[in-house]
Amino acid sequence: MALKVALVALLAALSASACADARPAIPREPAVFAVRDADSTIYLYGAVHVRPRGADWGGPIAHAALAASSDVWTEMEISPATDSRGQQLARQLSAAAADRPLSSWLTPAENARLAALCGRLRIDRGAMEHLQPWAASLTLTLLPIVRAGYDPQSGVDRDVDAYADAHRLREHAFETIDEQLGFLANLSPRLQRQMLLEAIDEAEQGPAELAELTGAWEHGDVGALQRIVVDEMRRDYPELYQVLFVRRNAAWLLVIQHELQGSGVAFIAVGAGHLLGPDGLVAQLRARGVRVDRVIAPPVAG
């Protein structure tokens, strides 16, 4: 399950350190955290990048927090230009070298499993042969999810961006699409092979685990999310955890601290795993003496 969590970024907007702040009135909806100083409030909201078609992107608290904000931050700029650049770059970075087809990464038995899976999923096995393992892993992970009714175009960050566009809020991005795809394309060969094998395993199991994660995110189940997201990722994929979470969180933390030097209200929607655990933004901000609280009632726009 750890690979599916990493690739789809279906992670909860909760921190392990938030357990100490638990109160009976904690709402059963996706969590929002408020980062505050004397003249600033920054709402941290964990985005789910793949949602069931037609599903709302958040509960009343998240909606009210966004409505109270004048600035919005997402991981990267969300626009047709970014989508076009992403498609172009993905084709370039995902292409296998002529002397290193996908089958060369696998044993005969593993290739037989992949061929059987491609037949069951109606994927062109020949086309897969020209992909890098990380790209093949992504294909095997996303296709069953899409066929189960989840939509990559229905992610939380896209809905937040649409609201910001409609209300003419100031919009900012932490990264570029080139940086994001570069994180995957530059993973070590060992990790790429491990990802491919687990993607085969999880595609054979189907999307039931994704429904479990979706429910945990929607209801703010701290225990389940801590076990599934943080513990499994750190244990099974330490390199991927460092690349996708630890290093990026450290860079984003500097931006957030800089924003706190100003004033006003901002809303940050990033992959929710970035708020989780000891390396998450919530814990890292608190460790630096910044006030971070779980929001338990819809804020009122000032």
Which key features would you list for this structure?
two-stranded antiparallel ribbon, 14% strand, six-stranded mixed beta sheet, alpha/beta, elongated
The structural class is alpha/beta
N- to C-terminal distance: 42 Å
Q: What ranges have pLDDT less than 50 throughout 5 or more consecutive residues?
A: 9-24
Proportion of residues in β-strands: 5-15%
- Sketch the topology as an H/E string, one letter per element: HEEEHEHHHHEHEHHHHHEHE
How do the strands of the widest beta sheet line up side by side? 6-4-7-2-1-8
Overall pLDDT: 85
- Total of helices: 13
Largest sheet: 6 strands, mixed
Measured as a percent range, the helix fraction is 40-55%
Radius of gyration: 19 Å
Blueprint of the fold:
Elements: H1 2-8, E1 32-36, E2 40-47, E3 51-52, H2 60-67, E4 71-76, H3 80-94, H4 108-121, H5 125-128, H6 133-147, E5 150-151, H7 156-166, E6 170-175, H8 177-185, H9 189-205, H10 208-219, H11 222-236, H12 238-260, E7 264-271, H13 281-287, E8 291-294
Parallel strand pairs: 2-7, 4-6, 4-7
Antiparallel strand pairs: 1-2, 1-8, 3-5
Helix pairs in contact: 1-11, 3-8, 4-9, 6-9, 11-12
Quickly describe the structure:
The chain has 302 residues and is an alpha/beta fold. The chain is 52% helix and 14% strand.
